[in-house]
Amino acid sequence: MEVVAVRRGAVRSVVVAGLLVLGAGAGAGTPAWAGPVRGPVPGSGSGGSAGPRVVAGPEADVSYHGRVALARGTLRILLLPENDGPAALPNATVRLRLSADLADRQELAPGCARAGHREVVCETGPLPSQGRGRHIGIALDLRERVPEVVVRVDTWWNGGATDRDRANNEHVVLALDTGDPYTF
User: Does this model's pTM top 0.85?
Assistant: First the structure.
């Protein structure tokens, strides 16, 4: 059994995302940004015979820019989340998936949590419309030294927002064990 220590905010994002996937977030009192809400249209008369209503989340364009460097079995990632709007987001979660196993013990950045043998998730914090989130700097120790690592960066959870341009928040970066930074 793997034990992971995380900051409370990161766990909140992961738990909310899990609830949305399971459909537990679709109910009365769920904020519009929490994702699609299905159910009868209020005031439609016969208990929803007008069909289901779908309340979509806000539209936001989350993107990630940063650097990846691999040196002597340690992968360093500097990430800057951005939102080109039109709506602001209270939080999002970026996922980092690696082609190599992580070491058992990790010193993770605040707001980050290990999500598997090769995966880490980090909360972005608030993403204002036409603005940037917090810088995320993380150093990940690999289980063993490898000549290269493929890093996949994508949005794991965005509060139910619609993102019409997913190309700028999904990256695949090859980092060679040279210590050189690879920018995305």
Answer: no
